[in-house]
Amino acid sequence: MLQSMKRIQVIGPRKELDRVVDLMYRTGTVHLENASEEVRPQEICLTPVKLEAAQNISDVLSKIQAIFSTLPPIAEDQERQAAFRTSLAEKSYDQIIKRAREVIQELETTTRDLFARKSDLTLAITALDRYAKVLAIIQPVEKELPTLEGFEVTILLIQKEHAGVIDIIKKEIAAITHNHFEMTSTKVDEETLATIMVFSKKHSEEVHAFIYSVNVNEVRLPKEYTGKPFFEMFALIEEQKQKNKKEIEDIDARLSSLSSVWFQELAVLKRQLEDIYNEVGAYANFGLSEYTFVIMGWIPKKHLRATKKALDNAFGNRVVICEIPVTEEDMKHAPVWYDNPAWIKPFEFIMGLVALPKYHEFDPSPILAIFFPLFFGIMVGDIGYGLVILAIGLYVRKKAEPGTFFANMSRVLIVSSIPTIVFGYLFGEFFGNFGEHMHWIEPVHLLGISWNRAEAIIPMLILAVTIGVIHVFLGLSIGMRNAYITRSRKHFAERSGMMLAISGIILLLAAAAKVIPSYALYIGAGVLIIGFILIIYGAGAFGAMEVMGTVGNILSYARLMAIGMASVILAIVANEMAGAFGIAIVGIAMAVLLHALNVVLAMFSPSIHSIRLHLVEFFSKFYEGGGVPYKPFARMPPGGAGKSG
Predict the structure, then answer these.
(1) What is the model's pTM?
(2) Could you state, in order of their start, the residue ranges of all structural domains in the chain?
(3) In b/e form, how buried is each residue of 45-65, taking b as 16+ CB within 10 angstroms?
């Protein structure tokens, strides 16, 4: 759920600013605002803090980052890095920066030159490969070319549809060279022709000027290759490539040697300088008067008391932190921070697919944590598949790095496997009808219905659409709640009217089908009319058209039945395949493969469709997004950048 935020102001004597900033940075709870802009001039005249230090640190940091990125990465040595961090923790920021400058002086020129040389060699190899490719194309016409001594070879690549330009070029080159040239063409591929021209070097400048003027793609060989036979040019190209590759290997070896000596210290220095830069850069948000500083920002309510206590212990009554009354306009800019219970946290990464909610909006994470596994369980609904998905989720969770996509997805699969097993019991499915065939399990009889999905198509469809009505109505109710909080009458009327209109349609359909008494037709018609009136008031005439869109949203939940039906049919087919072959082991192998395919589909397809039902059908009824993310002024792990001063 979204945490309650409080707007605060920290005021103290100007001489204590550095110590206060350092403490707040270590505490890491305040989302900063620009105090010099937020405090009204009639209250106190503040000027923003301007520090050249931020630019100086930025320069040093950029050079350290450049050196670090140039060296080949090696495994982080936690023991060595901890020793470097401990050493830097005893130093002031100025001393840390001084050490960084010493490292830069030691490494910058060497690493820059080596990297530049390696880049040049790599580009040269690419160019040599290109020359070799061109020569391979024109080599078949080598016998048609005259002796090359004293002549220059130029190759033109021309698209087939522009082949007519060759005659124009030939005519102009004849005029330039006084007919002292040779020209031949060969097919490169289905779309390209290579035209090779040989002419006296004394006409080189005029020829190339003409070629440039007609915008033809020219391939010019380096001077050291001209005037030589093709076999010799190929040999020279290959020789130069090998020389370049050998030099690149030597450069890589030198860089690796430097990395083994400097990588660990550079990694620590880079993190520490980034940390210092973030802290010093935040000074631009602080305001100063002649004797006082002011810091403003937002803090989660749950952290306010601890932050007050930390400042009080360090500074007593010299530094004061106080809450500021906020207006509705202020709350629009309040930062947003998720802090959910453990059972909701696995689903927060799905919320990352959409923009953050605004501060006043309802956080749908708890509802997502309930309905996503429910939808998943209905669609998969198989005890055997649920157990396999649970095992896969536990395995991936053990192997995946915390916080990664696979780690988050594994937790979702673990939670979703539970309702999958429960609905599998309800539907009587264990790897399709295998459990029923073995007399281990059978579909549950409930409400006079046998919940065998392969047969109970209509009851499953009614269940899916009923869930759709509940889910969409829940979304509309949340939309009404958001509209009430923001005092938006028209949005409130639109969403409440939509609920009434859909309710009226349901009553009309139920009465027409004689599921409920016929007089409900009149009630349904009245409710529908009232709903339309409210919708038109809230969203205009076009808003009334959204009623059919909402009906479509509800019917979209029929996919809960359809996808589940497809899954159970594939499982039944897999089981029947086991007995369809004369050789038992072949049938069993085919069944296992089909069940494995079904499990893979069961992990992905229901997940995607469940997400879609939430993001499209559900969120569209209330969700705006566009919130400001909570970014506390906090030290980056592993922390300990050193002392200020």
Answers:
(1) 0.67
(2) 124-237, 358-621
(3) ebeebeeebbeebeebbebbe
